[in-house]
Amino acid sequence: MLAINNLSVQFTGTNLFDNVTFNIADHDRIGLVGKNGAGKSTLLKILCGWQQPETGTMVIAAGQTVGYLPQEMVPDTTRTVIDEALTAFSRIDELLAEQQRLTDEIASRTDYESADYTRLLNQHTEVTDQIALLGADSRQEQTEKVLLGLGFRHSDFSRPVAEFSGGWQMRVELAKLLLRRPDFLLLDEPTNHLDIESIQWLENFLCGYPGAVVLVSHDRTFLDNITKRTIEITAGRIYDYKCSYSDYVVQMQERRASQMAQLTAQQRQVAQIEAFIERFRYKATKSKQVQSRIKMLDKMETIQVDEVSTESIHFRFQPAPHSGKIVVETQHLGKAYGDLQVFDDVDLLLTSGKKVAFVGRNGEGKSTMAKIIVGDIQDYTGSFRLGTQVQVGYYAQNQAAMLDGEKTVFQTIDDIATGDIRPKIRNILGSFLFDSEDCEKKVKVLSGGEKARLALAKLLLTPSNLLVLDEPTNHLDMNSKDILKNALLQYTGTLIVVSHDRDFLQGLTDMLYEFRDGAIHEFKGDIFEFLDQKKAALEAAAPRVTPSEAKVQKEGRQAYEQSKDRERELRKLRNAVEKIEKEIEALESKIAEKESVLASGAAQDADFYAQYQSLKDQLDERMEAWEMATIAVDEFQNS
After folding, report:
1. What are residue 339's DSSP bridge partners?
2. Whole-model pTM over 0.90
3. Sign of dihedral through CA atoms 419, 422, 427, 431?
4. Residues of the chain with pLDDT > 70: what percent?
5. Residue 348 contacts by C-beta under 8 Å, 6 or more apart in sequence?
6. Among 140, 380, 406, 532, fewest CB within 10 Å belongs to which?
7. Dist. CA 536–CA 527, nearest whole Å
8. Cα separation of 473 and 482, whole Å?
9. Angle CA(500)–CA(506)–CA(510) in degrees, nearest 5?
């Protein structure tokens, strides 16, 4: 278990965390949520030791490890993809070197009966067992499996990491982290650089992960498919929900409605008490009652209503100008980069008013096709044409990076605003959450999310009847994504969207084009219908196992089970720890209820205080039991 006690962190005079306490159990699946700037990434950095809190402590059971993937990092390596990923097993290399040293020393000794010789043999056995548990014999196989799952091809393994884009380099870092298998896995926006297939693979991997997983993500489907617990960070406090993200949203709204009802009732009560005091303040016969009510008001703690962010972008696209029936048409279209043929012989016909999605693995040509359509790429084979009177609006995947960093936010919009729009620039920027002070900031100092919003504001001011959006949800929070999706649903023109966000695509498009193996495949239907059909096709195509293969697999499973006996015993000990942790959680909840009653100032009888003390004594006893249980786990691991 990892325990956070009375954690406090300040940032620019504001409490990011104020005496926060919670535990992470060994097999938890937790989603961290909260508005941008609430402290999600800061909390992950504290959990992994990258940042220290101002007050409070973090306690982790002896021998347990923490692994962290930040949103962005720049790997510094000259290795190939496979060699860099294999560095995840550096602990095995250390153990192999130690095993060889012990082997050499044992071979040189002749004092077979001595205690020192027995000690060497025991050390050698211990190191050999650790090597087996870490999977030394299968590390190449494990590494290739993870890299393929994250979207690399076999041909990529021998290429230097430095040849790849930043997004692919982040995939290598993610692969290394997954291969290390830390006890607590902390992931900050891990899907940012993944395509749908890789996201689905990662979901399956994390669902079966043996340790705890803590996620920060703006991908609703990803969170729902993995997490069983949601921790909300708001106004320096946390709220712990034993449910997935979608269920959390419902419960959070119910909690805040309850808080508002309690606050309204309290305000009504305060008004009644103040009216009584004012009415009888100068009547001697009522002085005791007046004083009693004054004391009651002094002791009453105002019910706190959680901060609710009402900030969100709000906009609608301008009415689409009229265009011809055919919007995009290609015949035998092909595009290659040197020897790499991205796609070839593509026939595509897109008619007015259609909303389509481009999906497929990264590198299969989705963004390339988008750039051909908007005119950024013109060296292709075959033919391509836009229909009559087609006006294109384009949001590139790197749109935010394409903004002029030296211009201010206001100048960026002012440069393209015309006619009646010019007097409304500040109002338009306000609808994208830029206040008067923000308008004078230079673009280069904006965050990724702010640049994405500014790029969307530019797109809004360009009348178009064909919108081409390449990963428009990157850097947008869930609320902003929902508002963008609603605006696109009301858009009257033709839409092409490249996205890996399944929740964003659901219900938005009525046709998909899958880019795969140099060709484009049309699918009429929703994203989840497409994924279900693809899953069924893969299962149907799975090879059947012959009797002889089944026998080999059976023998392999038996050998595997024998080697896992030790791991099963370890799980048993860890389950005992988890059981105690649940008991601790229940006791802490009961104690919190008692303390809430005490905080109200109402008088209590002796039984109440006896129950309160009993709960605290039970908590102390269970904490001691937890320490003993974790020691037992640690001793077993080192035995």
Report:
1. none
2. no
3. positive
4. 93
5. 328, 329, 330, 333, 513, 520
6. 406
7. 14
8. 10
9. 105
